[in-house]
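[stage:ingest] chain + small molecule (magnesium ion)
[stage:ingest] validated
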Amino acid sequence: MTRNYRFTFGPWNIGTGSDPFGPPVRPDLPFAVKLREYKKLGFDGVQLHDDDVCPADWNVEQTRRGCAELKKILVDEGLFAEFVAPRLWEHAQTIDGGYTANSEADRRYALDRSKRAVDIANMIGTRDIVLWLAREGTYIREAKCPIEAPRRILDAVNMLLAYDKNIRILGEMKPNEPMDQAYLPTPGHFLALCYKSADPKRCGVLIESAHSILAGLDPSDDIAYALFHEKLWSVHLNDQNGLKYDQDKSFGSVDLRRAFNTVWVLERAKYGGCIGLDVKAMRTTKPEHQVKHLANSRAIFLRLVEVARSIDSSKVERLRAERDYESLELYIVEKLMGK
Ligand code: 3MF
Ligand code: MG
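[stage:predict] done
[stage:export] tokens:
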């Protein structure tokens, strides 16, 4: 059963526990050490930011060497690279956003850096580029032109599609954090942009559970809508306790029924993309336990796959036909309680 799904995570998912109010509480593991954990934990592939592969200021030759080194480690470990995401939110030239910055020089930096992420993707063997548009938003709405902003994002997407005729763009939308307000806050917003792009077939989404929850939506509905468009190309499954900061809690750890909805939808659609788990360990987690949240999230996912597969669909159909949603609800909740 497990062979049906390929599991991935990013090196940022093994972290030091630092938060805006306190310093690291666990040592920072070297990337090569993290890579050795993947297979042990039952994972198959790695999600990467451009500067997880090598520093963003390296020249062409250094970058080529950095990519070759990582590629070799991936091959040796039996892993694949799922995607590369340009990290457009840490550099001084992305303070006011990447593609939507008011400064033309800063926008140029974001575009050049994104093209370089495409080069890196080619060198490590993936065609998927994820755009988490972290700072494409504002703290005050008057700061930028809200009509021009989506146009600039679209121009950037088109520029990347033209730069390499093979890559795919996956928008990972989030309504807030780090910005107060994002320009394209939900997957639906990005899907509309996909159809306006120069090559809609190569534009789709990565949907993160916590991001949908922060937008007040059920992740399974966002996921189902993207599946309807045949544009769900990756997921970041996790959980989120209400409308707070982005918590990246272990999948299913807050709302098991909501997690079940997600798995049930993916199962019904025979979703073939990777199951990315964008989860963080609690700050209280000891160093020796710092990868448990990844193993746990994967285990909860697989357990919910079993539950989804045990659902008697003829019973569901009968209860639907009778409009007996009360009994249908009890049936699902009892399944979740192990009955
Ligand atoms: C933020 C995120 C990001 C993205 C990552 C890859 C740091 O809420 O989810 O994690 O997933 O940048 O796109
Ligand atoms: Mg994410």
